[in-house]
Model the fold of this input.
Amino acid sequence: MFIQNAWYVAATDAEVTRKLQAVTVIGERIVLYRTRAGEAIALEDACVHRKLPLSMGRLRDDTIECGYHGMVYDGSGRCTHVPGMDRIPTSARVRRYPTVSRYGLVWVWMGDEAKANPDEIFQIAEADNPAWGRNAGGSMTVACHVLYITDNLLDPSHVAWVHQSSFGNDACADTPIQTTEAASGVTAWRWMRNVPVAPFYQSLVRFTGHCDRLQHYEVRYPSHAFIRAVFVPTGAAEQEGANHPLAMIMDSYNFMTPVDADTTRYYWFQTRNFEPHNAALSEEMDVAVRNAFAEDRVVLEAVHRGFKDQRTPKIDLAIDRAQLLFRRRVKERLAAEATP
Ligand code: FES
Ligand SMILES: [Fe+2]
Done:
């Protein structure tokens, strides 16, 4: 039901500690902890004996002791001790999921271990650029299928109605949206010309008057979005675009992890090409983004319920092209994974 050969965010770095933590990623229950040396460990959360979640056991040094009959597992998932038995059954091991810490997040590989390549984790071009700032970001649980969120993140038009007080304004209502496809995913984008700056960005732009605004909404497989907003003085879109010296660029990274068909974990942070060390600004942006994403959550959960109760056909509009294409490609990938 979900793409398996992919890296997903399982938790933030801060959430993986010396305390056993249970998470569910694409329907698979995982126990997370950190070794004394600082490595994040992700194991199948079910003892081989009676399937008690290992997360209900105890961390002893870098091993987990099952909370039911005391079987012990090391960080590779191998059982190293069975109380009352000298010989450990060779099949006594739980699955270990490869992990990588990047961008303050712990990523787990959910597919065939031989295919796990950390270079395939979402690449952020400006991650180490000192001229760019980053806010802390956040996370939330959304009671909807992941594809409603990826639909939303391929839909620049919704800001005109859902985020009227922040990201959107009337200028966002009617400009046609372009769709571009790459091997990594799908992008919906448009330049809006000679439009007022939307409320959220008004205090941030470094020029006065109207602007040309780019909305770049890109979702990559399995469910990771790169949303770029560019504001330049009116007329600059054509020649220089984001390279204009006064361009204000804000990038939003959105990493969605399906829990199951009705629940998704959503992690995000933003980067910007201005005032990299302004902590108050980072904080302000965190608050504004959190409020805006709460607006999305209300809509997305209601859409999920709406489709669960669906009694009449839905219709698709011109603005839906990118999302429909992305959904088609996801289906093809699922089919390819299902055929050995
Ligand atoms: S259920 Fe884990 S040791 Fe029995
Ligand atoms: Fe939104």
Q: What stands out?
A: The helical segments are 146-152, 159-162, 236-239, 279-308, 321-338. Residues 144 and 304 are 5 Å apart (CA to CA).
